[in-house]
Design goal:
Its cofactor is biotin. By secondary structure, the chain is of the alpha+beta class. Helices cover 28% and strands 28% of the residues. The protein has 31 helices and 67 strands. The strands form 15 sheets. An 8-stranded antiparallel beta sheet has the order 13-12-9-10-11-14-21-19, sandwiched between helices. An 8-stranded mixed beta sheet has the order 56-53-54-51-50-57-49-58. The chain has a 7-stranded mixed beta barrel with strand order 35-42-39-40-37-36-43. It is globular, with a radius of gyration of 35 Å.
């Protein structure tokens, strides 16, 4: 009959990780409510989302879980009946158990008396002697090093020094001679004091050829039963790695089971033990003698394999014992407890502990982001874990990720099942010991049962197969091709900036040309190969060495296990190269169809970032055999493309026509040699050059600046204008925004764009669509012939010809006049050779046009053309296409036919969903964001220091509250989803909510996730922290979940929004918002979603009535005046700001001249690269030291450390020539010093000087 809990209704789980999850599941199975506790670093752990209630602890990290007073307060507030501690943390803390009992609750575990006795190992040893249980020859507590030395000599070496309060492998030191004792005694004593608040130390004889056997017991305070033995001999650094039930040694010596279990039961009876406990023994493998080690008064990590073999739920049994105690009984009735006693195990079980660690580095922990987690399921498989995809493993705790357990009829079958299970586990992100565990279990010694405690140290040899990152280089990422070319929804394409070099590198090693490579920027990494491998490096010239010996690029090369590959700095033209390794990087996960890293958005590649020191990248298990068979090979020089890049081909459009730019602007665009800015990166290549005149004075409903427009889908390679500055969109660029793109780099020349280096110059050369296809065909032919050449199928070395015949085409491909009724004018704009931007009407907000766009998209989707992606906006749609499948001419014809066939009617209804979001109107993070912008970018503007106050003035409103009401009193239609990671653009369906706003100029570097902003006449919701230019209005929840594990998301749809969703907002306080946001982050929040209908006629009628509404007409008039007034203010302040910048620059030049004139023999430290001065690490009067960092530059999202040169050591700093925030070019002075030689010095650029910015 199933037991019904009658006294314990709610349990607090005072732990974290997999044991907390295990206890919560047990509570749920018993019908008991659970309360979990967590720290900020654990907020996404499964134990937080799984519990009925979860509470954020007041302390941080480990200290948070150890704060008993905080735990007791949580128990009081949440009306908790009992506390279960699991193992570790407070599980064997006597004071904690006592305080819980004093507070009227039950401590789910043994009595405080048992904990106290067993917590002191010397007392536990004495009780064993009293119970006639054999003990390891040893000593009482020792007071001094001399006493320890004397006792060790008497016992005979080797011995083990043990902390009396130790546990979990801590506080143990094996000593083989007198010298080691002298060194170890103070260490053990200190560790005992710091970890266990006890300074007692004693000695036991150390048995090298021994086994660690433990017996699981359970008592009710009167009787004790056992559930057999476990063997835990496979240990590293005295910590268990693999456990078995039953012990293979005991199974082959059956008489031992009775002896061991009797000793364990007798020992526990002496304590009148209650709840679960484990009695541990040391067993001499040579003689079969066994000795008591200690008793653990808690649940053991490895309890699960006992449960599998004995059919018992130990945690449920602990809860049942506690329920009886809560009912003032001694414990579980003895009749029931004794009925659980079994003669022996059923079958065999094995547990493997999966850690985030690097066995190759002596099991160093490897915290980080788990990008993919999948556990196998099946009969006889049990996984106890706390992690899921997207979990960040913090560095503050034990790195245990999971316990993988298997059960089968016998040990041989269990071992086979374990190997299969480990092989099918997926844990991608930080390094784990999965491969190591498989190697141990498949080893000959383990298979034979030779599982001694010293097995791993003396009889097992691990052969890792990976790359150990010794130095990451300036900016090294994993990239594959073509990456996420058709994801849409603001997911950047990603992939290599130079896809020719990456593909050739792969071909040289025998990979698929699109396989993942390491993309190296400016300066490369130093990599230690733990196994032989075949590799190739192609791209811009950089020095390549193996153990210091120079090696050629554009070659198939071999490297031996233990050798180091080093890639130096960029030498001349170009800035990127690609390291391909045969077999790729199998443990780098696929995310949204690609392994490519998008570091700006923190996904893909190695934990969503560039390489870091100590990253550990697994190689294919076949790498050694491949390398043995490979033959090295180098390409002839004629095959290698030139990286001295002076021009890049573009197509006119979408916006270099007369609507936006003058004829003079167009002449300037294509005649200027544009300088590449220091802040160029994978998101965009920054251009420095002249400013357009513009053919209009503002952006109309799109914004105040003539470069502003309605948000639309950006083409990859677009030359984008934000205010008066320009950037060329590259592989990680946004795909939606409200800034014009004058022209677009053709697909076949994106690789040259990706090789442009800060400080270099480039011209944009217009061509035609047909010529762009010709160049694309040349590139693909070059790659195909290269494959034939390297495979030996062709003797002709391919050569890449990049020159095209003259020719240009218009930005506007076709214009269709409107009919004056419901059918608007349509312009088809060219967006390179892969995009058509379809623009409807006069680019004013018109819900009829938005609905027409929706109908057109439905028709385009119905065509089913592969590779086609639609990116709609309020006034148009950008269609991305693949010219190899459908040409621009063919697509234009099809789209025009479909658009012409759409009926000009407003009788349209569309099923939609409405999502209701909580919103806080004045969140402190928004205030902090504005403050940071004013401090670091621009201190004065018409919209500063308060965006809401600016909106009030610009729209003729009387109060801040009136501005906020705009947000609360309207439904919003999502007209587009893009920008970056599912950012929605919202159009208010209430005419009274149509306010206007400028956009930030320059844009912000960062915007808090969940920010609701407004730019032009449209609203936006920032799904995560990201750059932006909309005015900050309010804050709601983030609406992007990278790994799709939260409610409302999925791994294939990490975005929340789709075009034509509708949104409403409900106001909450800051405190309530923080509470809701905590639930969202923990995966416990469910969005309020309802089905709805979009009725075009009803909405159109409402807007038509508004045109005659006197109140709205008055509002529009005041708004018009307010916008004009604020625009005038902003223009004046912008000019003042730019003047100030120019004046500051002039003053700096004058100051620098004076410095040089006053110092006739200076020691000048110059900038090695185009960059921004981020930090100056010296002051006037400082004496320069060897190796000292003088200045930290920022370029291409990297930090560049400029070090003191040898000839400047001992010099005294006379002046700081370039202050933080200033921009420098190669040769610009950074610091002027006096003394040393008078030779000028230019900082060398090498990988040790770079790190991520």
């Amino acid at each position: 009959m199933e037991y019904k809990f009658s006294h314990i209704k709610k349990v607090l789980v005072a732990n974290r990780g997999e044991i907390a999850v295990r206890c919560i599941r047990a509570c749920a199975a018993c019908g008991i409510k659970s309360v979990s506790v967590y720290t900020g670093s654990d907020n996404t752990s499964e134990h937080v989302s799984l519990a009925d209630e979860s509470v954020l602890l007041s302390g941080k990290n480990v200290n948070g879980y150890l704060d008993i007073e905080n735990l007791l307060e949580i128990c009081r507030v949440h009306e908790v009946d009992a506390v279960i501690p699991g193992y570790g943390f407070l599980s064997e803390n006597v004071a904690t158990a006592q305080k819980i009992q004093d507070a009227g609750m039950i401590f789910v575990g043994p009595s405080t008396e048992s904990i106290l006795e067993m917590g002191q190992k010397h007392r536990a040893r004495a009780l064993a002697v009293a119970a006639n249980v054999p003990v390891v020859p040893g000593t009482e507590l020792l007071e001094s090093k001399e006493g320890a030395l004397s006792a060790a000599k008497e016992l005979g070496f080797p011995i083990m020094l043990k902390a009396t309060g130790g546990g979990g492998g801590m506080g143990l030191e094996v000593c083989h001679d007198e010298t080691e004792i002298k060194q170890a005694f103070a260490k053990v004593k200190s560790r005992d004091d710091s970890l266990f608040k006890n300074t007692g130390v004693f000695i036991e004889k150390y048995y090298a050829s021994s086994r660690h056997i433990e017996v699981q017991v359970f008592g009710n305070g009167v009787d004790v039963v056992h559930f057999g033995e476990r063997e835990c001999s496979i240990q590293r650094r005295h910590q268990k790695v693999i456990e078995e039930c039953p012990s293979p040694f005991v199974t082959s010596h059956q008489e031992l089971r009775c002896k061991l279990t009797k000793c364990a039961v007798d020992y526990a009876l002496q304590l009148k033990y209650k709840s679960a406990g484990t009695v541990e023994f040391l067993l001499d493998d040579i003689t079969g003698d066994y000795f008591f080690l200690e008793m653990n008064t808690r649940l053991q990590v490895e309890h699960g394999i006992t449960e599998l073999c004995y059919g018992v739920d130990l945690v449920a049994l602990m809860l049942r014992q506690a329920d009886h105690e809560k009912g003032s009984q001694v414990g579980i009735p003895s009749e029931y407890l004794l009925s659980l006693q079994r003669d022996g195990p059923v079958g065999a079980a094995i547990e493997a502990r999966v850690y985030a660690e690097v066995p190759f580095r002596n099991f160093a922990p490897s915290p980080g982001l788990l990008q993919a987690v999948e556990w196998p399921e099946g009969n006889g498989i049990r996984i106890d874990t706390w992690v899921k995809t997207g979990q960040r493993v913090a560095p503050y705790y034990d790195p245990l990720l999971a316990k993988v357990m298997v059960h089968d009829t016998n040990r041989d079958s269990a071992m086979a099942k374990m190997l299969t299970t480990l092989t099918t586990c997926t844990l991608q992100g930080p390094a784990t010991n999965l491969h190591y565990l498989s190697a141990v279990i498949s080893s000959d010694g383990f298979q034979k049962g030779e599982t001694l405690t010293n097995y791993l140290a003396t009889k097992f040899q691990y052969k890792p197969c990976a790359i150990d990152v010794l130095s990451p280089g300036a900016f090294t990422t994993v990239q594959d091709f073509p990456a996420r070319a058709t994801s849409g929804h603001g997911i950047p394409r990603g992939g290599p900036m130079d896809n020719i070099s990456s593909r050739v590198a792969n071909l040289l090693v025998g990979n698929d040309p699109g396989a993942e490579t390491l993309e190296v920027t400016i300066s490369g990494p130093e990599l230690l190969f733990t196994a032989p491998a075949i590799f190739s490096i192609c791209g811009a010239p950089m020095e390549v060495t193996i153990d210091g010996e120079p090696k050629p690029m554009w070659s198939r090369l071999k490297i031996k296990a233990g050798q180091k590959l080093k890639v130096g700095a960029s030498k001349s033209g170009g800035c990127r190269n690609y390291i391909a390794v045969k077999g790729g990087f199998p443990d780098v996960p696929v995310y949204l169809g690609s392994k490519a890293t998008t570091p700006s958005l923190k996904y893909g590649g190695t934990q969503g970032r560039q390489l870091q020191t100590s990253d550990y990248i697994a190689l294919s298990e076949h790498t050694a055999s491949w390398t043995e068979e490979a033959v090295e090979f180098s390409l002839p020089a004629s095959c290698i493309p030139s990286f001295e890049i002076s021009e890049v081909y573009v197509l006119h459009g979408p916006h270099d026509d007369g609507t936006f730019m003058t004829a003079k602007d167009r002449e300037m665009l294509y005649s200027t040699a544009w300088k590449i800015g220091h802040n160029s990166n994978r998101t965009g290549i920054r251009l420095i050059g002249p400013i357009p005149e513009w053919s209009r004075k503002d952006g109309g409903d799109g914004g105040a600046h003539p470069s502003n427009c309605f948000d639309y889908g950006y083409p990859l390679g677009g030359i984008n204008w934000g205010g008066d500055s320009s950037v060329v969109f590259s592989m990680d660029s946004p795909n939606l925004g409200g800034l014009i793109c004058s022209s677009t780099v053709i697909s076949a020349d994106l690789w040259r764009l990706g090789q442009l280096k800060p400080g270099e110059y480039v011209r944009f050369k217009p061509t035609t669509y047909d010529l762009s296809l010709e160049l694309a065909q040349r590139v693909e032919t070059y790659v195909a012939k290269m494959q034939e050449f390297v495979e030996g199928k062709s003797s002709g070395a391919p050569v890449l010809n990049l020159k095209l015949a003259p020719g240009e085409t218009s930005a506007i491909l076709k214009r269709v006049e409107g009919d004056g009724s419901a059918r608007p004018e349509v312009k088809y704009r060219q967006g390179g050779d892969s995009y058509i931007i379809i623009e409807f009407g006069k680019q004013m907000a018109d819900i009829t046009i938005t609905c027409r766009i929706r109908l057109l998209i439905e028709k385009l989707i119905a065509l089913g053309i592969p590779g086609m992606v639609m990116n709609p906006s309020i006034g148009g749609v950008t269609v991305q296409f693949d010219s190899k499948i459908i040409t621009q001419h063919e697509l234009l014809k099809k789209v025009d036919e479909l658009e012409s066939a759409i009926e000009a009617t407003r009788e349209v209804t569309i099923p939609v969903r409405t999502i209701r979001l909580p919103v806080v109107l004045d969140h402190p993070d928004l205030t902090e964001c504005l403050s940071r912008y004013m401090t670091t970018i621009r201190s004065t503007a018409g919209y500063l220091p308060d965006n809401v106050e600016y909106l009030r003035k610009a729209n003729g409103m009387s109060s801040r509250r009136e501005v906020f009401e705009i947000l609360l009193n309207s439904r919003f239609l999502i007209v587009s989803v893009g920008f970056l990671v599912g950012n929605p653009i919202l159009f208010p369906l209430n005419p009274k909510s149509q306010i206007m706003a400028q956009k930030f100029n320059p844009t912000r570097v960062s915007t808090p996730g969940g920010t609701v902003g407004i730019g032009g006449s449209l609203f936006s919701l920032y799904p995560v922290e990201q750059p932006g230019g909309y005015m900050l209005l309010a804050r709601t929840l983030e609406t992007w979940d990278t790994f799709g594990t939260k409610p409302g998301f999925s791994p294939s749809n990490p975005w929340l929004w789709e075009p034509f969703d509708m949104v409403t907002f409900s106001e909450v306080s800051v405190e309530k918002y923080d509470e809701i946001n905590a639930d969202f982050m923990a995966g416990k929040y469910t969005f309020d979603v309802s089905e709805d209908v979009f009725n075009l006629q009803e909405i159109y009628n409402e807007f038509e009535r508004a045109k005659k509404d006197l109140e709205i007409m008055a509002f529009r008039k005041a708004q018009k005046n307010g916008v004009a007034e604020q625009l005038t203010i902003e223009n004046e302040r912008y000019l003042g700001w730019t003047r100030t910048l120019a004046e500051n620059s002039a003053r700096e030049a004058k100051r620098l001249k004076a410095i040089l004139e006053s110092n006739p023999n200076p020691v000048n430290i110059e900038s090695p690269i185009d960059a921004n001065v981020w930090k100056v690490e010296v002051e006037v009067g400082d004496v320069l030291r060897k190796g000292q960092v003088v200045v930290i530059l920022e370029a291409m999202k990297m930090e560049i450390n400029v070090l003191v040169p040898d000839d400047a050591v001992g010099s005294v700093v006379q002046a700081i020539a370039s202050k933080p925030g200033s921009t420098v070019t190669p040769g610009n002075l950074l610091v002027v010093a006096k003394g040393g030689s008078d030779a000028r010095w230019k900082a060398s650029v090498n990988d040790k000087n770079f790190r991520e910015f």
